[in-house]
Structure formats: C-alpha cells, structure tokens
Amino acid sequence: MAKRKKQRITGSRNFHTPKLIPLLFMIFILFVSALSLFLSSTIFKEHLVLSEASLWLAMSLLSLFIALVTLHSRMDHVMEKVLVPIVIIGSLVCSGTFALTTFQLFSDKRNYEDHEFKISEGVPSEISFDGSKYGEDYISSITIHGVEIKVAHLNITRTDYLQELKNKPLKLQYLPHSRFAVAVTLVIEEEVQKQ
C-alpha cells in the first residue's frame, strides 16, 4: 500500500509550510509590527521621537517578516531562483536600514525632551521630494550647508514650499542622531519678531 502524500496547509506548490517555531516567530514579528504601528498613530502621537521610532520599528519588522516568508518559497524555476534571493536580500537591507533609523531616534529621545536641538540656517542647497504620482507631493529632506535633514514627517507640500519658502533663508532645528527636523522657520520672520 502506497503512503499518502502529506497535504500542504497553504494549498500552494510554491510555498513550504514553516515548522511550528519559525511560524510562531513570524506571527510574533507581525504582531509586534502591528502593535508598533498602532502605538505610533495613537499613544505616541504627540511625542515626535517615540511616534517616528515606533513607525520605523514597524517598517523594520514588516520587512523582516517579508524576508522570512520569502525564505519559505520553493525555487523550482530559474526566475524564482533569481527573484527570491533578491527579495530576501532587499527585505533584509530595508529591515536593517529601518532598524538603524529606529535606534537613532531612540538615541534622540533625551535631546527631544530636553529641547537640545542642533540648528542649521541658510538657503537650502538641495530639496528632495517624495515623488508622489497620486495626490500632493511632499518634501522628504532639506539640505543646508551639506547637512541633509529629514522633514517628511512635517508634511510640507511642494506647493507650500514654492509659495512660501523657495530661495529664502531657513532655520531648521533638528535632532542630532537621526537628523529629523523638529521645526522649519523662515529666518526673516524671526528677525522681524525680535525687533
């Protein structure tokens, strides 16, 4: 009598069902990622550093989850043998990059709470936008005197920048480790207010 082939849970011929420990680990990573995303948008909403750190932690864990899921792919065809390792390596690189930003933000927690910011003043030498094809285009970073400062979380639109800030001297207060901006103001406005 021939043995019956064990049925796959997934029903897909391109995926190995993970063993119990890796499966529980993957579920745990997904749970912590979802919890971090929830904390970022609700509990830590008013605290810039904790909110952004939770968001970047969620993205890091989600990238790690994608890498772990992809590890269980079967590589029967030539295209799969090429694409699967690229997805795994890309996901691990993204996860590491996001984790580094998370650690930098946690390092800035004390600076943020004590209002110890670095300041950069001048006309921006470079502005980068998020390149959104749908909806409003937002500024992702501003470079002044060779220092690139992240401003995506401040939601400055391209339209606002062109109308109010373009070619004008700016003062950026930012966190020292992560280089996340806390405030962007016009230098001229501050001088008028002092007088």
From TrEMBL:
Give TM regions. Answer: 20-41, 53-71, 83-106
Alphabetized, the UniProt keywords read:
Membrane, Transmembrane, Transmembrane helix
Q: Which domain of life is it from?
A: Bacteria
Originating species: Fictibacillus barbaricus
Name under which the protein is recorded? Uncharacterized protein
